[in-house]
Amino acid sequence: MTSPARRPSRVAKLPPRERILDAAEELFQSEGIRRVGVQAIADKAETTKMAIYRHFETKDELVAEWLRIVAADYQAAFDRVEAEHPGRPGEQILGVARFIADGLPAVSHRGCPFINSIAELPDRSHPGRQVIEQHKERQTRRLVGLCAQAGLADPEQAAAEITFVLEGAQVSTQNGSIDRTGERLMRTVQGIVDRYRPSGGTSAQTTP
Q: If pLDDT is split at 50, 70 and 90, which confidence band does 12 have?
């Protein structure tokens, strides 16, 4: 969950649409979706409200597009670990867990964008809420697929337990209730993989 170099150095070089999204990300993450108005986004992007509405019909659509970008980063993590560990689904599962663990320091400062956003979007018809739900469904399918490929008994249950750990670690980091969350996350996911692996299987070891 890394981000490129932020303001102010790169913003002036961005095209208008990307500049708007960059400003929206900064404000939505730091202040929340509901508290941020279109004018505040325009000011931070050094543009106008009219320009924003040329690119995004409504603020809700701007929120949804920002969340699509965040979701794409998570989906890219699955693609990356697949490329790094071809034919080794157990290592891929741990690679996804490492991606989450490595992103926990940012969560401690700003919170998980999905957790923060879904709390502000109770209406399931909101386009941003739909982006989150679709992303979570896609992520679950990919994780179940990895568990099945790794030969884990009951792939759906194993994936559910891993998901509980990944999301719980983010919440615990955000509220400060648990220390060493990254280390604990990796150990717990490793334990789930080992527990569901058939007897005699090879453990995918990881270093916390």
A: low
